[in-house]
Design brief:
Structural class: alpha/beta
Radius of gyration: 21 Å
Number of strands: 6
InterPro entries: TraB/PrgY/GumN_fam (IPR002816), YbaP-like (IPR047111)
Number of domains: 1
Protein name: TraB/GumN family protein
Strand content: 5-15%
Order of helices and strands: HEEHEHHHHEHHHHHHEHE
Organism: Pontimicrobium aquaticum
Keywords: Signal
Number of helices: 13
Pfam families: TraB_PrgY_gumN (PF01963)
Distance between the termini: 44 Å
Largest sheet: 6 strands, mixed
C-alpha cells in the first residue's frame, strides 16, 4: 500500500510538472490540424525595437501564406482619422483634472525635455496616448517596427493586410480603463525622466531577443507598470478570447500569417493555448 501511494504521488508530481511546463522559447508558431487544408503561422511581435529584421523562418512562413493579419489593419486609409477622433478624453476632462499641480509640472517638464512641447498643448488627450508618445524615447536608436516590415514583404508579394480588431474596438479598450489608472504610468515616467522605463524596456528587448514569450507575459505583471498589471483582463485576456474565432475564419479561408504582440501568446489565456483548446495543433518553429 505504501508503494502504491508513493507511485500515485509520483504520477501526480510528474503530471503537474508537465502541465506547468513553460511554452518553448519561440516567437513563431505553426497552426495546423482541425480541418485546415494548409498551415497558418502566428508570430509574436514587439511594437518598438532597434532591429526589426525578419529571420529566415519568418520569411519562409510569409512565403507559405497568402495574407497578413495584424492586430489592426494598418493598411486602412481611414485608420489615422479614426484614431485621431478617439484620442481625446470625454466630458471635457484634461490632465489637470487627474493629477496634482506638482505632478502636472513634472509631466510638463518631461514633455518639454523629451518631446520638445508643453503638455498644456495636448493635455486633453487620454493619458495612455500621452504615454505612448514617449515610447520612442525609451530606446537609444532609430525606432523600427515588425509590423511595418511584415507589411513591406506582404506588399511585395501582392497580398492583402487585415486586422483582428477595428480601430474603434481597440480604442474602446483604453476607454474602459479609468483615466486615473492610465495616468499612473505617466506620473512614474515624470519622476525620474524615463530612467526606470528605459532600463525596463532594455530588459524587455533582451527577453524578446531570447524569444522567451512566457517571461514577456510575466514582465507585464510588474506592479510598477500599473496600467498593464491591473488591467490584463482588458488588455490581453478578453482580446485574446475575441480573436480566436476571427483567427479560425481567416485560417480556414487561406493560409494566413498572424502578427500580434508577443505578450498575447503565452499563458492559460494566451492565443497559443486558446487555439489548442479550440482543437488546433500549435507548435513552435525552433
Amino acid at each position: 500500500m505504501k508503494h502504491i501511494s508513493s507511485l500515485l504521488l509520483l504520477v501526480f508530481i510528474i503530471t503537474f510538472s508537465m502541465n506547468a511546463q513553460q511554452l518553448e522559447n519561440s516567437t513563431l508558431w505553426k497552426i495546423s490540424g482541425n480541418g485546415l487544408e494548409k498551415p497558418s503561422y502566428l508570430f509574436g511581435t514587439i511594437h518598438i525595437t532597434c532591429d526589426a529584421s525578419l529571420d529566415n523562418d519568418i520569411k519562409k512562413a510569409l512565403d507559405e501564406t497568402t495574407q497578413l493579419v495584424l492586430e489592426l489593419d494598418m493598411d486602412d486609409p481611414k485608420m489615422q482619422s479614426q484614431l485621431m477622433k478617439g484620442m481625446y478624453m470625454t466630458d471635457g476632462k484634461t490632465l489637470k483634472d487627474l493629477v496634482s499641480e506638482e505632478e502636472f509640472t513634472a509631466i510638463d517638464s518631461l514633455f518639454i525635455k523629451q518631446a520638445g512641447m508643453s503638455i498644456g498643448l495636448i493635455q486633453n488627450m487620454k493619458p495612455f496616448f500621452l504615454t505612448s508618445m514617449l515610447y520612442p524615447k525609451m530606446i537609444d536608436c532609430q525606432m523600427e517596427s515588425f509590423e511595418l516590415e511584415l507589411m513591406k514583404v506582404t506588399k511585395e508579394q501582392n497580398e492583402d493586410v487585415y486586422g483582428l480588431e477595428t480601430i474603434k474596438e481597440q480604442l474602446q479598450v483604453f476607454e474602459s480603463i479609468p483615466y486615473k489608472d492610465q495616468v499612473a504610468d505617466l506620473i512614474r515616467m515624470a519622476k525620474d525622466n524615463l530612467e526606470y522605463d528605459k532600463a525596463t524596456f532594455a530588459e524587455i528587448l533582451e527577453v524578446y531577443k531570447s524569444k522567451n514569450i512566457t517571461e514577456m507575459l510575466n514582465m507585464m505583471d510588474n506592479e510598477n507598470n500599473e496600467m498593464t498589471a491591473k488591467h490584463q483582463d482588458v488588455l490581453l485576456k478578453d482580446r485574446n478570447i475575441n480573436w480566436i474565432p476571427k483567427i479560425e475564419v481567416y485560417a480556414k479561408q487561406q493560409p494566413t500569417f498572424f502578427g500580434v504582440g508577443a505578450g498575447h501568446l503565452a499563458g492559460e489565456n494566451g492565443v497559443i493555448k486558446l487555439l489548442r483548446k479550440a482543437g488546433y495543433s500549435v507548435s513552435a518553429v525552433l
